[in-house]
Amino acid sequence: MHAIKTLLADVWRLSIPYFRGEDRWAGRILLAAVVALEFAWVGATVLLNKWNNTFYNAIQEKDFPAFKYQLALFCAYATGAIIVAVYQIYLRQWLEIRWRTWMTDKYLTAWLEGDTHYRLRLKGDVADNPDQRIAEDIRSYIAQTISIFIGLLNAVMTLTSFAVILWGLSGDFRFTLGGSEFAIPGYLVWAAFAYAAVGTWLTHLIGRVLIKLNYDQQRFEADYRVDLVRVRENGEEIALMDGEAIEKARLLDRFSSVVHNYWGIMIAQKRLTWFTSGYGQLSNIFPFIVVAPAYFSGAIQLGQLMQTSSAFDRVQGSFSFFINAYQTLAEWKSVVDRLVGFERAVMGTQAEALTSAYHLGQTSDGSALGLDATEVRLPDGRALLSVDGVRIRPGEAVLLTGRSGSGKSTLMRAISGIWPYGHGEVSLAPGARLLTLPQKPYLPIGSLRGALAYPEPLAGFTDEEMRQTLEDVGLGAFAGRLDEHALWPSVMSGGERQRFALARALLVKPDVLLLDEATSALDEPAEAALYRLLRERLPQAAILSIGHRASLAAFHDRQLRLEPAEEGPAQLAPAL
Predict the structure, then answer these.
(1) CA terminus-to-terminus distance, the chain
(2) What CA–CA distance (Å, rounded) separates 460 from 466?
(3) Of the candidates 324, 298, 329, 328, the residue with the CA atom closest to the CA atom of residue 313
(4) Per the count of CB atoms within 10 A, which of 51, 284, 289, 357 is most buried?
(5) What is the pLDDT of residues 385-406, one digit of tens each?
(6) Does 469 score more than 90 pLDDT?
(7) Strands 570-572, 558-563: parallel, antiparallel or unpaired by DSSP?
């Protein structure tokens, strides 16, 4: 019962925000329409049940006029049922896509805002494969939730409607025990309940292992897909290193987890299918076994036999809802667990961000960037480096050096506000715009125009500005391809991608520019030309660069070096 209460609480927390959100009226109207059509469908089955009595009695009595009339009546019932079925599916799908659109927007917002997606990755496997949870689990959750809700509603309404009919048709079951006579009113209802209760209990005992197996299967499938995408995205590097054999072995190892877990699902489903198939086959004949004595004794006619059998089947089927839907329920439970786990991971990460010990302030001494009492830590809590009293003035270029692994790039992340581990005061000039260019620039798929403006709106730059900027950074060959769509990371070399990123900086014109080995893929003459271009075109920008080449010093006003301390975190050496 505790597990059921927890599941229902999770489903309520996942579902109810949509029906209270900005799309609530459309969602409520569509849900009400689907429910109303389900009532109509159950009403049609009640009418057909009563029709069974009259129709089969007409056959038994060889009443041809009544037979023809009942056929015409059946056509009317069937037409109405078809209309209800068609529009219920249509409106259900309409509700699904609106709900999915709303929920996808909510999850994407939560995942992307405040650098949550990056912080989740730093924390490790807290919420594995967020892409799969947003793309697949939301779709599955909504479709299965509506299906289960409508199925359960149908079962309740069918049970309520047909239990009354079956109770009236079954009469009392009388028997003598120990010299006393007993009567069980509505015995067919109790027989249907007992039959379904035993079946439900056995189904759960046999099939409950499917919940964990389905949860794991979704994770293994997602891990396998992610690795396939990584091979595609890094195809050039893999080909250059002749790493296909290693990649194949790694992918097959991932796939072996998929296969091994799937075998577990197959075995569990086979056991469950043995029982549910046998239960289903017996369900076809069980109502006749229970009702047949009354028919052969002459107490009821063929029509009443068929009506009673149909009513018994409906009641027993309603009681057996969990048996028939168990596989879907197992999959649904695993999807609910994955979405709830994702929400908790996102909320926990956002809560950590709100309590971050880094404080973003404003400089008061005219400097563009300041660092005070700043200590950068690793995710395990160990201190990596310590910085205090650093100031960079507008128009000043500072080169940050140090041995590999000393924490230079991590300090850049902390200044940019995406590194959550550590504490200190990071100050910018009032209203200053900060831009960070990493060593590996990101180029989104789409038009070259959109990639160049990213993440700014396209309206902020004219075509002439874009073409001239590409010319200035040495990418004149791309100046006439602004409206071309391509996989730009594959089209451009590493050096061209870095030139492209610097073109963004020239367009955006930031007040503070952080360059994390942003020219490492270029030769020294090209690097020198681009640094001269930056100093010329962004004369008021404060520039902080990370680099290892000695030639970079000529393009910076001073240097800072991270030196390892004998004990504790690395420290910045005095300015040179």
Answers:
(1) 69
(2) 11
(3) 324
(4) 51
(5) 888 889 999 999 999 988 887 8
(6) yes
(7) antiparallel
